[in-house]
Design goal:
It is built from six helices and no strands. The chain is mainly α. The chain has a domain at 55-180: Ferritin, core subunit, four-helix bundle (Ferritin), CATH 1.20.1260.
Length: 189
């Protein structure tokens, strides 16, 4: 084999799955397999919906218009960045529990409970209302999941759901919701 052949990437390999989705690695975490499996399932649902919420923020960031364009454009991008951070935290917690996190748009499309928006551009109140509805879904899942994790002794999952998902989502709901308050723009005379 020539030296140049050794530098060539070997991309034609047989693909192998080393852990099927829905299974757990055995890890000495001090949690029962049932508790871990339950938490992985909860976290994957929250992950799917958080990924959809993250992507709704980016879609609406790109398609924003109107008198408050600049402020909302920046706000939605800031919220997108936080959701992207939460996605990573959720996926890493699933992996740390020995599970497999969902990872592709196909998985999200199959699993999300958040209604799919149209491909087209919507008006600002509709976009903001969609974000609030998506947050409601994620926050309800996080509250229920935190209770379940607490009952099963999974303090790490409970902490992630309360300290990160809920405590990040609630202020985002507040910030978005205030843009839908029934006030008029004021003009200086």
């Amino acid at each position: 084999m020539a030296d140049t052949d050794q530098a060539q990437p070997q991309y034609k390999i047989e693909y192998r799955e080393i852990q099927p989705f829905g299974t757990l690695k055995h890890l000495p975490l001090g949690l029962s397999d049932n508790a871990r499996k339950q938490s992985v399932s909860i976290l994957n649902q929250v992950l799917a919906d958080t990924m959809m919420l993250r992507d709704l923020y980016k879609k609406h960031h790109w398609q924003m218009s109107g008198a408050t364009f600049y402020q909302l454009h920046l706000l939605l991008d800031t919220h997108y960045e936080k959701q992207a951070e939460l996605v990573d935290m959720l996926a890493e917690r699933i992996q740390a529990l020995g599970g497999i996190s969902i990872a592709t748009p196909h998985d999200v499309a199959e699993m999300t409970k958040i209604p799919r928006p149209p491909r087209g551009r919507e008006d600002v109140p509709t976009m903001l209302a969609r974000l609030l509805e998506a947050h409601r879904i994620v926050l309800e899942e996080a509250h229920e999941g935190a209770k379940t994790a607490d009952e099963s002794g999974d303090d790490g999952t409970n902490d992630l759901l309360v300290s990160d998902i809920i405590r990040s989502g609630e202020p985002q709901v507040w910030f978005i919701g205030e843009h839908l308050a029934a006030t008029e723009l004021q003009r200086a005379d």
